[in-house]
Amino acid sequence: MKKIILTVTLLASTFGAFAEQVNIYSYRQPFLIEPILEKFTEKTGIKTNIVFAKSGLVERLQREGKFSPADIVLTSNFASLLQLEDAGLTQKIQSDEINQNIPAQFRDDNWVALTKRARAIYSAKTLGDKSDINYEDLASEDYNGQICTRSGKHPYNLGLVSSMIAHHGEAKTLAWLTGVKDNLARRPQGNDRAQVKAIKEGLCTISLGNSYYLGKMLTDENQKVWADAVNINFPNQNNRGTHVNVSGVVLTKYSKNQQSALALIEFLTQDTAQSMYASVNYEYPVKEGVELSDLVASWGEFKVDGIAIREAAKYRSDALRLLDQVKFDL
Amino acid sequence: MSLTKVVKHPWQIGSLLIVAIMLAPILALMLTALESSEGIFAQLADTVLVTYISNSLLMLFGVCALSLLIGLPLAWLVAMCQFPGKRFFSWALVLPLAMPAYIVAYIYSDFFDYAGPVQIWLRDIFGWQHADEYWFFDIRSIPGACVVLALVLYPYVYLFLRSAFSQNNLGQIQASRLLGDSPWQSFWRISVPQTRGIIVASLALVGMETLADFATMHYFAINTMTTAVYDTWLGYYSLPAAAKLSILMLAMIFLLLAIEKRQRINKQNYAHNDNFNTREMYHLTGWRAGLATGFATLVIFAGFILPMLVLCGFIVDYHDQVWNQDFITYGSKSLIIALLAATCCVFIAMVINFGLRQSQQNTSLNQHWTQQFPGQFASMGYALPGTVLAIGVIIPMTSIELWSNEILEQWFGWQPGLFLTGTTFAIIFAYVVRFCAIPIGSVQESMHKISPHLDQASRSMGRGFTSTAFRIHVPLLKRILLTSGLLVFIESMKELPAALLLRPFGFETLATYVYQYVSDEQLEQASLAALSIVILGLVPLLIVNRMSQQSVRHAKSTNNERASPTNDVAAQ
Prior knowledge:
The structure holds two protein chains of two kinds. Chain A is of the alpha/beta class. Chain A has helices spanning 2-13, 30-44, 57-64, 78-86, 96-101, 155-168, 170-183, 192-200, 212-218, 224-228, 258-269, 271-281, 294-298, 309-313, 316-325; strands at 21-26, 47-52, 72-75, 90-91, 112-124, 147-148, 206-210, 230-233, 244-252, 284-285.
């Protein structure tokens, strides 16, 4: 018995013995990023290891302190980037290449955004052209019983509500949320894709969803019919622009493989990786001038809400409180 | 009576030591809970907390009641009656236990949703256009979630009660029948009271599993106390507030169990020798037989066959994407970890229960709080949401690691690094803390039935307690130890949140592999891996089932030979 434990323990702990490698804590599903990481290993010979979890990685990193094996953390939304920075778990990412590749709006000393994900509004094709729709319109009586969405507390919706508070203040956002809740066709449930499916089935006509889900559905034989039932709209084009969330990366404070880790972050900001994000995951590259895949390009260009990421993130806990106040998910 | 007088026996000291280690994660959470949580509670209390609590309670009672409604009649039918298909049902009814709840939940919520295949099919047939034109139950509701959870959890009730009913004292049942009770009356007056302890023990497992569940509730879009734990932690970034809520939940469960225990005190019922039902009591015919067979068929269909069919459908649809060459590695890792966890759990259950036995024998006090508490405390981990438990495991472990690194550095100039959390040790420990409740509870129930006279006889022949334990108790408990160990094994194969957060680099189990797709609502892509979890769980499950049936037969045959009165204990 003891022997078995010892062997397992040894096997697990000797795993860290390779020379060139990067250890990744990831909030993003490995299957989404593996093709890009494989390209990186192919190019540099540096091996990558991933531990993926949906929650708790920040706490794990924090408790591991200086012994942490993790070199970088990949996140799926900006709130996590800021949480890692605020908890003092990151270090400065110093690289001229990264500074050149990524516009200032999408990086800070301690984090780099890698992709943009627009919070789009999907509308049933039967509604006709809705390209001039605004987030504010979702509270309008025109859409009574017509709206489907995932949980209000999901980071993507939370980000949107935070940005509403940043633009309109708390009182107006509360009124807006109340209006949206009244318009819901059903209790918030499922993910963004499930809402499009509900539109296809005629349960609702409008849904909130990240842009890349459309690409994923269009390329899945069984789900294409759902995607074919909707138009993707980038809201607020005639005013402040569409709310975008970002996925991103930080370099951990106690990274043991700094050189390799930095090389990976740089690679992720280069044309190859950036265009792969678009072609494999249908996300928007952060680097300017990177060629989009035909599918992503076909959704057209759109104006992005220019509010600073940190500015919108400030209102996160207020957004949560308002969502609870209107009992959005209940 | 002072503490030192009660706690002086080696097994008891051993069990206290184990409990101290097992409680470390919970104590760590309690300490975290003491930190300030800056008014988040007040905010929650003002808005959604009441709904969360009432949803949790509704789920708790709903799932327990339904599990009982499904498990108890089926256990009784299989143990006491003859009806068509009984031999098949007696083993097939345990199958749903091999299905991870999050997979069944995913399949059901997807299948019966408005946009799911069933309702689409109905709309096609009847030409309905919109939700307003017809009524269909809302799968994403509390009743929907209760049914689905009960469908995967009832086997606990069934498995424990089936062997209990088989060992029901037949003489008492016959007596009650002779005194004019109908079969129903004798069921209520004799069978149920005799098995009350086991009913509670199995429902406690079901209830704790329900309260701790997050993934399932998430698919069903039901907000419970566990949702509040996650909201406060991941939304408001307040681990202290989340810890407070978790501790509150634990306290509630602890209280419920304590009340029940108190009521049961001194009602111990040691098994006696007499007549086991060597044959079925009732031979069902006509509509009764039809009802029995129909009910059992329905339960197996809903709990196992339907989800399996859907999974297989996914595999066919996505056959080119579901295979992964690393499956064998993932599977073997799942197996090794689950095996280690099961072994540790069984060992701990033995130490704790021997400690209890020893203290009961050696004191005039039959029920001192110090005697009961190791078992109860060591079982608490089952009710914690997996991720919260994982954080609870990380906190004390990293403290030990930092501390020992400092010392070793000072003395030897050597730093071992993360020798606990950086290895699979952390996962195994978390599984043990979480699943120990299963063997501890069931061994305790069996232990109760070993008459103290046996111990006394052994001692009068000069055997010490430890020798008695290994020569008398262990052989009698052999089957229950193995059975409960295998149940831990099955649960560990399915376990997700703790494995996800605690695993070292390069460590993937089948469950964690499936989760990366399930978390993106693409179970289809991982359907083959999901099926593998079920199939790997089936083997030990069928062994559990076989053993628990054999033990009953064994008890019956030895009983017929008028052999030792205690062979029966080994069952359940």
